[in-house]
């Protein structure tokens, strides 16, 4: 958890990794200081948490073979094999299923967010 | 599986982050242009990752786009009667050969490509366009590029974190086994994890998922798995 009280976990997502990348470019070009980049990432942590909480409606369901589970530092990690994933969202209410060989789920405790 | 909501969530995240850090930029004495450049670079990188179709995406695809243009132009040039301009038409021919070796085929191909460009206006057709390239090489290349881009981005994440931020989430970044093979990953919060014998049930929420190179956002998720 960062000082702002939001998880840094979403920095691993595509939207996070591309932001880190973009900030890195600006730093190495000497256009911003690293400390400013860290503030941007702190803001990112909060904005992602709020966006997911307030602006999403989709529901995801998945089934599969649980290959690995781990609970460490209040973080659950699951590796699921032969996993079927279904997403229901408003413009696609009946949903659609895809099957993937392997999916990794990293989940932080919902009880701590925003505290 | 449509991922409209994921795309909308990403767009809103970019918008809000940029707006909310404006003050930080100002107080650090950094001009608005730099902030706008940050947005631009971020958006471009997101588009390049091809995990969703964004509203800021250019109408055309970069690499493929050049090829498409050549395919369009080439038939016109060669069709012009009475004018023999091999020097003009050959460069575009050469480029188009990746697609089509013969002139006749070139025209046919030109047609099918044009219909594909029409499809391209509709957001969700985009990936199909790459699938339809004849020998599949371009699609393969693009996928590879996107993959490499993502990997290097993640590596740099580690770098930043380890240098400047002795973050507690290092275990997340270096989650050990099979790192780098995380093509499909879900990042979220858990509400409840239940186990009865070898059956595991979990209730998750507020997640971002990358599944088969597409990104999704979800409010809730429920999983049933057997160990």
TrEMBL record, chain A:
<dbReference type="InterPro" id="IPR015872">
    <property type="entry name" value="TFIIA_gsu_N"/>
</dbReference>
<keyword id="KW-0805">Transcription regulation</keyword>
<protein>
    <recommendedName>
        <fullName>Transcription initiation factor IIA subunit 2</fullName>
    </recommendedName>
</protein>
<dbReference type="InterPro" id="IPR009083">
    <property type="entry name" value="TFIIA_a-hlx"/>
</dbReference>
<feature type="domain" description="Transcription initiation factor IIA gamma subunit N-terminal">
    <location>
        <begin position="6"/>
        <end position="52"/>
    </location>
</feature>
<dbReference type="GO" id="GO:0051123">
    <property type="term" value="P:RNA polymerase II preinitiation complex assembly"/>
</dbReference>
<dbReference type="Pfam" id="PF02751">
    <property type="entry name" value="TFIIA_gamma_C"/>
</dbReference>
<comment type="similarity">
    <text>Belongs to the TFIIA subunit 2 family.</text>
</comment>
<feature type="domain" description="Transcription initiation factor IIA gamma subunit C-terminal">
    <location>
        <begin position="63"/>
        <end position="110"/>
    </location>
</feature>
<dbReference type="GO" id="GO:0017025">
    <property type="term" value="F:TBP-class protein binding"/>
</dbReference>
<dbReference type="InterPro" id="IPR009088">
    <property type="entry name" value="TFIIA_b-brl"/>
</dbReference>
<dbReference type="GO" id="GO:0000979">
    <property type="term" value="F:RNA polymerase II core promoter sequence-specific DNA binding"/>
</dbReference>
<dbReference type="Pfam" id="PF02268">
    <property type="entry name" value="TFIIA_gamma_N"/>
</dbReference>
<dbReference type="GO" id="GO:0060261">
    <property type="term" value="P:positive regulation of transcription initiation by RNA polymerase II"/>
</dbReference>
<dbReference type="InterPro" id="IPR003194">
    <property type="entry name" value="TFIIA_gsu"/>
</dbReference>
<dbReference type="InterPro" id="IPR015871">
    <property type="entry name" value="TFIIA_gsu_C"/>
</dbReference>
<comment type="function">
    <text>TFIIA is a component of the transcription machinery of RNA polymerase II and plays an important role in transcriptional activation. TFIIA in a complex with TBP mediates transcriptional activity.</text>
</comment>
<keyword id="KW-0804">Transcription</keyword>
<keyword id="KW-0539">Nucleus</keyword>
<comment type="subunit">
    <text>TFIIA is a heterodimer composed of the large TOA1 and the small TOA2 subunits.</text>
</comment>
<dbReference type="GO" id="GO:0005672">
    <property type="term" value="C:transcription factor TFIIA complex"/>
</dbReference>
TrEMBL record, chain B:
<dbReference type="Pfam" id="PF03153">
    <property type="entry name" value="TFIIA"/>
</dbReference>
<protein>
    <recommendedName>
        <fullName>Transcription initiation factor IIA large subunit</fullName>
    </recommendedName>
</protein>
<dbReference type="GO" id="GO:0017025">
    <property type="term" value="F:TBP-class protein binding"/>
</dbReference>
<comment type="similarity">
    <text>Belongs to the TFIIA subunit 1 family.</text>
</comment>
<dbReference type="GO" id="GO:0003712">
    <property type="term" value="F:transcription coregulator activity"/>
</dbReference>
<dbReference type="GO" id="GO:0060261">
    <property type="term" value="P:positive regulation of transcription initiation by RNA polymerase II"/>
</dbReference>
<keyword id="KW-0804">Transcription</keyword>
<dbReference type="InterPro" id="IPR009088">
    <property type="entry name" value="TFIIA_b-brl"/>
</dbReference>
<feature type="region of interest" description="Disordered">
    <location>
        <begin position="83"/>
        <end position="122"/>
    </location>
</feature>
<dbReference type="GO" id="GO:0051123">
    <property type="term" value="P:RNA polymerase II preinitiation complex assembly"/>
</dbReference>
<keyword id="KW-0539">Nucleus</keyword>
<dbReference type="GO" id="GO:0005672">
    <property type="term" value="C:transcription factor TFIIA complex"/>
</dbReference>
<dbReference type="GO" id="GO:0000979">
    <property type="term" value="F:RNA polymerase II core promoter sequence-specific DNA binding"/>
</dbReference>
<feature type="region of interest" description="Disordered">
    <location>
        <begin position="157"/>
        <end position="178"/>
    </location>
</feature>
<dbReference type="InterPro" id="IPR004855">
    <property type="entry name" value="TFIIA_asu/bsu"/>
</dbReference>
